[in-house]
Amino acid sequence: MASSIRVVILGDHKVGKSAVTVRFLTKRFIGEYSSDIDLLYRSSIKGEDSVTDIEVLDTCTKPGQPVKVEETRVSWADAFVVVYSILSRPSFHAARVLIQGVNRIRTSAYMPIMLLGNKTDLDPRREVGVDEGHQVALEHGCQYFEVSAAENVGITLAFQAFLREARIVQHQKTALLKRRRSSLASMSKRLGAMFGKNKDSSNSNHSNSSGSGGGYSGGISGGYSGGHYTGGGGDGAGGRRGSIDVRDLREMGKLM
């Protein structure tokens, strides 16, 4: 079974977001990154019984720039990884702010979040304790791991657990969407039958009357088209039509 997941990597400046991302996707470590733009990576991750096509948006945070969560990123993403450095308490506070931002912007639907404490290879210089990371994870209901991108410690385990949760959540959302589609189709049929009976009754009354008059002709239809819900209302020959669409960040020119 194949699935597709979009992940956004968030965190303060110099916490190792790119190092974590590249280590997970390529198993390589690059110590210094000079990119000043967001980077989008694509890869396929093979599991025991599935293949996951993954898009990872590695966000850029410039020095002195306050951390924030953009609504377009929350709309685009299926899951978030929030990275901080165990050597930097300010980066830990920033991670908490970012998690709160995601939870504030997202819809009522559950969105997987993983909190990563990076740079465990430099543990003697630690400023943030393991118990503090656990506490934040408990407060916000997210997964928590401490890792080292430099020495490839814990990266694979953390992302495997995270992607497993993201796939489960995605499958649950898909099942819910199918049930809603079935419910809408059933409702549409019932309403169509009801209006059909009313029209037949109106035509019958018209044919039995001695005067002239006009019968109501209209209908209500709804369904899903191209992944978007469309609904109509019977306003004579024409109906109202609307759509709900989540725009992809790539279409908005936000990535490069």
Automatic annotation (TrEMBL):
Entry EC number(s): 3.6.5.2
Highest taxon listed in the record's lineage: Eukaryota
Enzyme class: hydrolase
PROSITE patterns in the record: RAB, RAS
Keyword Hydrolase annotated: yes
Family of this protein: Belongs to the small GTPase superfamily. Ras family.
The protein, known as: small monomeric GTPase
Lineage: Eukaryota, Metazoa, Spiralia, Lophotrochozoa, Mollusca
